[in-house]
């Protein structure tokens, strides 16, 4: 088994502890492996999509003033059938979008969102 050294900020450390405690894991390494497996499950779910897809994309993000989400929405506006934006506590925003597109377009959109590194939560629910 390989050993990887990583740096985590305080929020990441708290999240790692929460994962460890919630799942009753014996250490941080197990918590990291669990988080990696959860991320891989999401990736596999998106990769398994084929052809035309429709569903709801839910995003929670911080910093309402940062235009990154508006730029992504503009890039994919032909695929967004309905969009809802709501302000949450702690200066966070909720974006809910009804998406209808080819699976490859959805995959590109999700990659663009994740590449920004500014979303707290991203989930596509296929209809």
Topology:
Layout (H helix, E strand, L loop, with lengths): L9 H13 L5 H20 L4 E11 L5 H8 L4 E8 L4 E11 H14 L2 E8 L1
Antiparallel strand pairs: 1-3, 1-4, 2-3
Helix pairs in contact: 1-2
* Percent range for β-strand residues: 25-35%
Q: What ranges have pLDDT less than 50 throughout 5 or more consecutive residues? A: none
Order of helices and strands: HHEHEEHE
Going across the biggest sheet, name each strand in turn. 2-3-1-4
CATH names the topology of the largest domain as Alpha-Beta Plaits
Give an account of the 3D structure:
The chain is of the alpha+beta class and 127 residues long. The chain folds into two domains: 10-46, no CATH class; 51-126, ACT-like. Chain A, domain 2 (Alpha-Beta Plaits), CATH 3.30.70. It has helices at residues 10-22, 28-47, 68-75, 103-116, and strands at 52-62, 80-87, 92-102, 119-126. Strands 2-3-1-4 form a four-stranded antiparallel β-sheet, covered by helices on one side. A hairpin with a 4-residue loop joins strand 2 (80-87) and strand 3. Helix 1 (10-22) crosses helix 2 (28-47).
